[in-house]
Specification:
By secondary structure, the protein is mainly alpha-helical. It has three helices and two strands; from the N terminus they run αββαα.
Length: 66
């Protein structure tokens, strides 16, 4: 799991320390990465909607007439 997610969380390592309780590790870098990437994805979708807004009529026309 760490091999797959490490490239995505690497820019955020060292911002806050990791906490470990026994065998459990709480990584702030992962939480921060999820928040940043979610905001980035939301921003990209919002940007696309600004460039080409889609009306409900346009959606129903495209769905009903393939």
């Amino acid at each position: 799991m760490y091999g797959i997610t490490n490239p995505l969380t690497f820019p955020f390592h060292g911002i806050l320390p990791e906490y470990s309780y026994g065998t459990t590790i709480f990584e702030w870098a992962t939480i921060i990465a999820v928040i940043v990437y979610a905001l980035l994805a939301w921003g990209i979708v919002y940007l696309f909607q600004l460039i080409k807004p889609v009306s409900p009529e346009e959606v129903s026309e495209q769905v009903d007439n393939p």
